[in-house]
Amino acid sequence: MSRRVVVIGVGNPLRGDDGVGPAAVEALRARVPDGTVLAVSDGEPARMLDLWRGADTVVVVEALRTRPTRPGELHVLSAADAASWTAATASTHALGLGECLALAAALDQLPPRLVVHAMEVADVEVGEGLSGVVRSALPELIDRVAASVRQAHGQDREQ
């Protein structure tokens, strides 16, 4: 059975650590099974819903700013967890993932399975490049996302 798996790296590479989602997606290009849809988004809810339309599994890779900050800390969240978690954090976008998930639920457009891989970040000021602590945690984030994608495709081992 063919499964449609979509990975969305949310963020803006021109805002420091907010580029962690797009950086992860770029690194995944050679590590995920054929047919996996890899996309980058600024997080705008209507575009997110359009990207995951028809997907069996959606994997979102997102930067989070929390109080207190713990840059480099990784989280794996379900859709429900992500909605409540992100509601209590400072989003790096005008509308956060929580609002996007609420809209999707209201419109009955949540995918059957959604998992969020989030990294806590520090610097989201204008400027290119990830901070050292986020750059150091990026390989582990990429490994976790790749494992989620393989699981969604029904594969247990590294490609």
From TrEMBL:
Entry annotated with the keyword Transmembrane: no
Pfam families: HycI (PF01750)
GO molecular function, one term: aspartic-type endopeptidase activity
BP GO annotations: protein processing
InterPro entries per UniProt: Pept_HybD-like_dom_sf (IPR023430), Peptidase_A31 (IPR000671)
Xref: CDD domains: H2MP
NCBIfam families per UniProt: hydrog_prot
UniProt family annotation: Belongs to the peptidase A31 family.
Name of protein: Hydrogenase maturation protease
Organism: Streptomyces filipinensis
Classification lineage: Bacteria, Bacillati, Actinomycetota, Actinomycetes, Kitasatosporales
